[in-house]
């Protein structure tokens, strides 16, 4: 059997929905975490440079930003691990479903993959036996999880609900920066607005970013326009937009995972395979 024919037969049993969802999940999480981290850093610099002269006014904000940045590190690690598990579950359940419908056959390539996962023949000597035994224990433990698709459906459903809240929260800074950018556009084109330039302001206090006693707390007129023209503001604004897009991509990937896992579980359940196979 040639290499191309072997790969073609392996691709027949590949869960394409899970593959697309995994790629989308990795892309979305990387975009959300990377851009979100840098956007929070840029926000911290803008606040302490232009909106407050007293460190105590934004000390709490800095602590919150640093806490969110640590949460981002954990979120990235968790999603890359869980995405890999969901992909493995997709291969596992899709293979079982296609065996039920009779359009999946074990190939030489598949046998070789199974031998690699299960450790194949134990190597000669105590060291080879110990490595094979350890790998078999890991695969056995993983197989117990992969043999319960209902657990993945429940966990993914709960995770989707939580990430829906994260997606909504990621829209808040985009909204704040967009309002500020819109105000700057009005200042730059005074003929398009009836308000006085001096009354057009961006107030960080009204969004809860700073306390009401913070000074100055807001920037108005030409000073605000000069802030909007800085590279820091432009970069932070676009980073928050990219983080929002990443959150949306991750949400779509979770929905795809949930639909695919629910379909496979329902087929196995209706076909009498139960929740464990």
Automatic annotation (TrEMBL):
One of its GO terms (molecular function) is structural constituent of myelin sheath. InterPro entries: Myelin_PLP, Myelin_PLP_CS. PROSITE patterns: MYELIN_PLP_1 (PS00575), MYELIN_PLP_2 (PS01004). One of its GO terms (cellular component) is myelin sheath. It comes from the Eukaryota. Its main location: membrane. It holds the Pfam family Myelin_PLP. Keywords: Cell membrane, Disulfide bond, Lipoprotein, Membrane, Palmitate, Transmembrane, Transmembrane helix. The chain crosses the membrane at residues 12-40, 60-88, 152-178, 239-266. It is found in: Cell membrane; Myelin membrane. One of its GO terms (biological process) is long-chain fatty acid biosynthetic process. It is a multi-pass membrane protein. This is the major myelin protein from the central nervous system. It plays an important role in the formation or maintenance of the multilamellar structure of myelin. Belongs to the myelin proteolipid protein family. This is Myelin proteolipid protein. It comes from Jaculus jaculus. The gene is Plp1.
């Amino acid at each position: 059997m040639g290499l191309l024919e072997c790969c073609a037969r392996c691709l027949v049993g590949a869960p394409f929905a899970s593959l697309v969802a995994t790629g989308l999940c990795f892309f979305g999480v990387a975009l959300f975490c990377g851009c979100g981290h840098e956007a929070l850093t840029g926000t911290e610099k803008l606040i302490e440079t232009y909106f407050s002269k007293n460190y105590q006014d934004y000390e709490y904000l800095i602590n919150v930003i640093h806490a969110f940045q640590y949460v981002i590190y954990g979120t990235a690690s968790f999603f890359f691990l869980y995405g890999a598990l969901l992909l493995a579950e997709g291969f596992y359940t899709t293979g079982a479903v296609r065996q039920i419908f009779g359009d999946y056959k074990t190939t030489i390539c598949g046998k070789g993959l199974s031998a690699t996962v299960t450790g194949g023949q134990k190597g000669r000597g105590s060291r080879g036996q110990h490595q094979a035994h350890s790998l078999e224990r890991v695969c056995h433990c993983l197989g117990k999880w992969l043999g319960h698709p209902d657990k993945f459906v429940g966990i993914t459903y709960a995770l989707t609900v939580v990430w829906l809240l994260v997606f909504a929260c990621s829209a808040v800074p985009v909204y704040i920066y967009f309002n500020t950018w819109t105000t700057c556009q009005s200042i730059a084109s005074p003929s398009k607005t009836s308000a006085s330039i001096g009354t057009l302001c961006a107030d960080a206090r009204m969004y809860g970013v700073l306390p009401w006693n913070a000074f100055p707390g807001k920037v108005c007129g030409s000073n605000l326009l000069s802030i909007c023209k800085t590279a820091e503001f432009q970069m932070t604004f676009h980073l928050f937009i990219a983080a929002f897009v990443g959150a949306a991509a991750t949400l779509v990937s979770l929905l795809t995972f949930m639909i695919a896992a629910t379909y496979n579980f329902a087929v196995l359940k209706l076909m009498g395979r139960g929740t464990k196979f």
